[in-house]
Amino acid sequence: MDTYVTLSVIAFIGAASLWELLAGRNSDGRKSKEDWGMAVLASVTLAAVQRPALVFATAWLGRILVPEFEGGLGWLQEVYFWPVLLAYICIEELLHSGAHWFSHARRMRWKPLLYAQQLFKIGHRPHHFSGTNDGKGEITVTQTFVEHSLFWFIMPNFWFQFTCLYLGLTEVFLFGTAFKGLWAAHNHVNWNYDLYFLNHRWAWVRKTMYALCHVLTFPTQHHHHHARGKNSAKNMCNLLSIYDWLLFGTLAIETERPKQYGWKQSAQEEHNIWHRYFAIDMKKLG
Known about the structure:
Blueprint: H1 2-22, H2 33-65, H3 74-79, H4 81-104, H5 111-124, H6 151-154, H7 156-166, H8 170-188, H9 194-198, H10 203-212, H11 219-225, H12 242-248, H13 273-278
């Protein structure tokens, strides 16, 4: 079942990547050889190692701690599929965006929280590398699941996903996770179709799109999160921007593309994909 979710997202990323390639969205320094390497390394490892490991871990813990609940909520999706699916998406998105916000927030003052936060920052940092330090790099769809190897094991939304699977919400997990994964991938494609509506000559179209951007996250919103500038700590949500608007105060709606993407790669080691993906510098945890 989890394989179908993974394959559906990989198929979309493959098709969008081919479009980017044919449209010239990877040329002229927009994408580096390290970007390609990280995309392959992170995607293959996520599908072949991390997700299976998390499925096993949640099932193992469940059978030790609450064996009586295995498959116990299956009836719920049979009777209330759409409300449960909506609740699943809302909770999963809240957990993801909350952890994402934590990864970008100012330094925590309480030491235990600071240590946890630095682990999240190390885990998330590779996701914000685009191209090299020449400033030409741009976001592309293959960046969707590029993170540090640590990140997937500490993200609470992944543990929530597979806990729901353990509890018997199989179809809810399948449809909810596939939809969220596809929406997140579509926000990383090198396109900005939402700008057409945000800059439309008819006011009612502009206002409707502006209102929609308060509820759902569209590509340009997420691209600005990947920008090097004032918006890099904005638009934390992959799907439901209503959390950015009403909960985190991090909503940013712009009417043009970012002028520069990506974070500066400060250390020479960060140009090595193995260092990006595996290294944990404990000196940064102080």
